[in-house]
Amino acid sequence: MSRALSIQTNDGVMDAHLFTPANANAPLPAVVLFTDIGGLRPCYHDKAQTVADDGYAILMPNIYYRDIAGSPVPEGKSFRDDDVLPKLFELAGKLTPKAQKSDFATLLATIDAEAEFANGPLGVVGYCLTGAFALRMAAAHPDRVAAAAAFHAARLAAEDDDNSPLHIVGDIRGRVYLGHADKDEHLPPEQIARLDGALAAAGVHFTTELYTNARHGYTASDVPAYNEAADARHYKRLTTLFEETLG
User: Taking 90 as the threshold, does the pLDDT of residue 23 lie above it?
Assistant: First the structure.
């Protein structure tokens, strides 16, 4: 069960989707779900509905709304195509920490205004590019975000990245779950170790798990890297995380 939303922001109108279980009794605990770099598309609608069916109201925004409404991928194309992916990298480059922070505040205001969302703590989950978004939102709003998860996240702790979430994890007060792929060229072992060290030093309650024989994008059913077993484990871990933090 889903419905479309048009949300006014400081930078334009954000299109988003709100998912709830069928025949749900609102309000329900809120979860913000950020898509991977490929943006809004059927496999992420399916993902959001699957999480919602566990008893949550899911808000899934179009991360690229400043430039394009709906899917950024032309019909009949894949976001991994050589003539599409460079454009997505260009769009993603505009999503600075400042822009993200503005959007986080707007998403929280939307959650407060819509009847489907319950008062109380909320969760956030990001994939690929937006794994960092989830950590930043948890750090920016420690009084609201009780749980943050990232799966096959990219470049979370590069040494040369001044904008890495590595530098703000000390502000996180909620629980964190990180599901990494062991064959992920976008998050090598040294970055995983660097981020784990920062989280531990900050006293964050976190769990890191390495998914074996998994590649970057293992939860996305429309890419060659999709791994059914790893995807099933990712849902199981989210279920546990949200049950223990959001109820």
Answer: no
pLDDT at 124 over 90: yes
Long-range contacts: 40-45, Cβ < 8 Å, 24+?
A: 40/15, 40/70, 40/71, 40/72, 41/71, 41/73, 41/79, 41/222, 42/222, 43/220, 43/221, 43/222, 44/220, 45/2, 45/17, 45/19
**Is the preceding omega at residue 27 within 30 degrees of 0, hence cis?**
yes
Residue by residue, DSSP assigns 14-55 as: EEEEEE--TT--S-B-EEEE---TT-S-HHHHHHHHHHHTTT
Provide the residue range defining the domain that includes 69. Answer: 2-246
Mean pLDDT of 19-32: 93
User: Residue 77 pLDDT more than 90?
Assistant: no
Residue 206 belongs to domain with CATH number: 3.40.50.1820
pLDDT in tens, 27-51: 999 999 999 999 999 999 999 999 9
Q: What is the pLDDT of residue 171?
A: 98
Rounded CA Rg of the chain: 17
State the DSSP H helix or E strand holding residue 216, giving kind and residue range, or none if neither.
Answer: none
Tally of domains in the chain: 1
List the Cα angle 233/237/241 in 5-degree steps. 170
What distance in Å separates the CA atoms of residue 91 and residue 186, rounded to the nearest whole number? 18
Helix (H, G, I), strand (E, B) or coil at 116: coil
Widest CA span in the chain: 49
Cα–Cα distance for residue pair 225/223, rounded to 1 Å: 5
